[in-house]
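Supplementary Text 2. Reproducibility record for the structural model of the 269-residue chain.

All settings were left at their defaults, and a single model was retained for analysis rather than an ensemble. We include the record here because the model underlies the residue-level annotations in Supplementary Table 4.
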Amino acid sequence: MQTVAFLTNHDKAPLVADSLADSGFAVITVDSFDTDRLGTFSREVSRLGSAHETALTKARLAAQLGGTRYGLGSEGSFGRDPYLRMLPWDSELLCWWDAEQGYAVYASQGGSDTNYAQRWVSTLEEARAFASQAGFPEHALIIGQPGEALFCKGVQDPAHFERSVLDALQQQARVWLETDMRAHLNPRRRQLIKRAASQLAMRLAIRCPACQAAGYSVHQLQTGLACRDCDHPTPQTLSEHWLCGACGHAEVRHRTGFAEPEHCPQCNP
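Retained model, structure tokens:
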């Protein structure tokens, strides 16, 4: 077993341990760095870089602070789904870093199985309804916003929740509520991180045919597979461009056969 250091303050190591063990890595936690300095979901600190850049920063720090060759970083992003822009969406990214060879391997998972939500409430009944929909108290809540007199994160005690909401409503007309998306307080998010870890393990298991480095993977997809009926190019994958992050070895793997007419913009507009 090789050791990979995981930079996390939110108890994520158990979520990835089993999957990475299958790839020959024992996960240790590095929590000596406050990851909130790189951005918070509750907006006290804005994330300056992209999710990929932030995950890579965490992975590099993990290896450095843990004194290991390999580091692991995780970054979550929340918003609307990428298809219809209607459903709340959780995107989870893992970055594995090899400090000796200086390259990274990424894996990601996304899904709508999230309680990500925010709402202004003006009564205790509205607050209770929001809490119920969010899966409270198993899933924690945040009351108030940064800079306000009342700003409580990680709320899981029902009595504390109701008391805080009532106290705030005595001082103001409405109270801001939102779900706490930190992994140790959000079971739904933890499940998606587990899925991302499974994908990472599968990627690390693929070795470069030239140098045998872990993480040989598809770098780019090219669409245009011809339709079986009319030979028109379709959005289906025509070829896969594989790349090794360690040595730069690359190859193109072409897909054989044809796309079904149901995927053809000419046969099925």
